[in-house]
Amino acid sequence: MNSIKEEETEQRVPLMPSALGEDHSANTHIPYADDDHEDSPYSQQNGYHLAKKNPRKMSLSDRRNVELSLHIEPQGIGKPHIYDAGPETPQTAIDASPTTIDTPPLPLPRGLRRNSISMPSGLNALEDLEALRLKHQMQEQEPVVEEDKSTSLTDSVVDDISGSVTISVPPEINVPRIQIQKPDDDSDDELEIHGKRRDRFRTRRRASIAPLPALRLNDKEMLASDFDAYSVASNQASITSVNSLASLLREKMQAFPQMIRKKKRETKDYKIKIFVIIMFFMIIFLIGFAYVGYHRKLLTYSYFEKIKFNGNDRILRILSRDEKEVISGQLGKTIGMDNKPFHCLEDNRKQDGSVCMEWNGIARLYMNFLDKDVFRCYTIKWQSLSAGNYPTDCYELKRNNGLWFGGGITKSREWSLSNDNFDFTPFSSGDLKVHQFGNGVKRYFINSIGVAIQISEKTPLHLSINTTTNEFCMRAQNDDFTFVNHLTELPELEYKICTTDGMKSLHMLMTQKILWDGLKVSDMQIIKSLMFEPVWRTPHSETMESFNETTIYNYSEDLIALGLPLGHILINEFWQENVGDFTVDQKRFPNLFKTIDLLHRRGFKIVFTIQPFISTDSENFKEAVRKKLLIYERHSERSIPALTRYKSSSSAGVLDITNNASVYWLKEKLEKLKADYKVNSFYLDLGTGYNLPHYYQCRQTLDNPDMYAKLFTESLESVGFIGVSTASSVPKPPAFLSTQPLNSSWDGLKELMSTVMNYGVIGYPLILPGAVGGDYWLNKTMTKMISFYSLGQPPEPDEELYIRWLQLMTFMPAMQFSYLPSYYKGDQMKKLAKDLAIIRQQTVNPVLDKTLSESLNEGVPLIRPLWMLDPNDTSCLSISDEFSVGEELIVAPILDPGVEEREVYLPQGVWKDGIDSSLRKGSRWIHNYKVPRDKIAFFTKMPDKTRF
């Protein structure tokens, strides 16, 4: 029904004023949804009609043959009025007088849909129901809301396939007032009548009944609420036809396509659920991984830039400026993983900005950072808190992070620490025949990619390389000799790590101060004379008596006959009767001052070898004991000198260089020698750290045995010397560091090359190699240190070995001879020596002269491994049998017997071949390069645009 006309309203049965209390006739003709037309056969059969012949339709209970019982308590009445829907016809219900209703009518809820339920059949008279209906229409309708489920009565609604509904309310319970929520103002089910909005239909099924029970469609069970949700559009479209079975079936059939789509959506929902579950577990995994990673990288960037440190695992990683890892390792190896750190107490903290962490009762760690723009340095210091703990830090030796160098030449003669292997051993200078390290050591280690480690001199340092893993380990541990002096109550490990992008600047920072500082013009002249002129070492005689003035004079005659540049004549320690006399032996050298004067006039410079040892046979020993100038026995009253053995002396004391009286006494002796014999300079044969007495004790406590050589060199700088045999720090120029004595063998030749390159890398730019052909000859491996020996000059070396040795020495910073080329028969050796002298004078010396100023200023070596030319070239890292002189000369010597060809690698650039003068392109290998016996492969760098 779309509208209601006024004449239809007047023909309705009016309500009695007594029952309604006031006239609401204007609002009584609200049509029912099931009103039939005038031609309805049912209306004709029962004679029931209105003015427009629009009789009431058969009730739903009659049509559906279902009995509906309803217990309703009218408002204002305490006990319920029971209506019994019997078989009475609608006419009987209409004829019933409304005056029989003595109580106010029950307000029916608004919005109930008549097409969804049947009329109650329990009323005694239809007039009562009609009166109630009219009463309800005439009264003001209040908005009602659906009653909360928790307080509602128990209803049962059954909607069968025919559409019938049965509402059952227990008779013993008062039926509460049913409230239905007021429909929205914009509802399509409302109609405006006389200015008031009324329900277009009397009921709304969804608001007036409980949710339907589960329905089954096509063997699929679904809740009524679901069905209603899918069929709401159908319900609204079929309001007028829902009373019939066809309309209900049509309604369900219309919902069928949507149910099909729901199945598809359910399939999609199943896939979505699987995807959501997978994503859930992935998120859990990522969160767990991030949690573990966060705790493993605890303190990451907490204090410093470019450093990552995990306090629990003690993993340290340092990054470069472009966020690349340059070094990584584990600190505190001797601390158990179960021990956790905590922040130090206020009394144990430093005021220099250091971070302090402590492992209770085990060790304390300090970390600090220093930014010098170009450099980034991180200081690490461990303090042991228990006697059994030795602070130990280990860093990985990774091939892809470059090669490690430093410390000095080791017993295996490997030129890189990354290829070495040895267990923890004290870091001290020694004899490579029996000890782990050679005569030149330095607590400095550098990587080819630009990171360096420098360890404090006060640390009782023990080193280990590649023993179990590919690691470089440092440990602080005292022992009974090298680190017998406990500088601290418990051992401390202190070092710093510096990183930079430039190797030259890193060397200048880490290796040494500017070496030219304080040099005189005469000092520079000595340096250049040692580089440009040979050092001629007097041959060792079989007996001391055979070494005299005549020996020195005849040797000088042989040197002049060679036609080679004149240089320094180095006289060994046998110029004195006993080691430590510091006076010329008058029996063998009565006129030595005349011989020296003659040599000076010929152009030679004279150098005497001196030692800090004083033989017990020397007259100076008694004086030194009386004046307490010697190192004394530990735990004695400085009255018992500590004795040792060294070379030709079977029993000797050692001057206490920490005693100012000893320094003054020695200087006085040496100055007298220079004044009496016109000696130009001295060579300091200091021995090694292991040559000190085992129970040594100086007036001032030494940090370690190598401190002795350092103090001795510094104390005698004013005396003037050209070289030292042992060093733990760079001696002040013009002093050169000599290589240790080399065996006259092919292994000795390889050792020479490795030693010079290693010493250059750790900061010794001025190197004085041993004599051409070797310093001694041994055909067996030593297992014990020979503290008392006199290794004479080796027999005439093999000619091929001597040639290859002489070719290599031509490109060294300095050249030293003992066995002369003229000792070989024939003119071939002499000619070869002259040709090599020309190469050195014309090619090598200019490069050395140019590189010298750079070395003295920046600390870079004169002889360098190829990776210093191009640290990013991986091929340069793997080459150990080539080297460069400065950056302009590459040398590829032959180091094995019977070989006349080799593989040669040239770094980037254009290089001129020294054998055939051809140009060769760099960054490539030259395979099967021919090197005749009288030639050496070397290449001079040319400008990049050079072409023929």
From TrEMBL:
One of its GO terms (molecular function) is hydrolase activity, hydrolyzing O-glycosyl compounds. Residues 859-941 form the Glycosyl hydrolase family 31 C-terminal domain. Signal peptide: none annotated. One of its GO terms (biological process) is carbohydrate metabolic process. The chain crosses the membrane at residues 272-294. Residues 1-61 are annotated as: Disordered. Keywords: Glycosidase, Hydrolase, Membrane, Signal, Transmembrane, Transmembrane helix. Residues 545-696 form the Glycoside hydrolase family 31 TIM barrel domain. Belongs to the glycosyl hydrolase 31 family. PANTHER family: GLYCOSIDASE FAMILY 31, SITS-BINDING PROTEIN. This is Glycoside hydrolase family 31 N-terminal domain-containing protein. It comes from Stomoxys calcitrans.
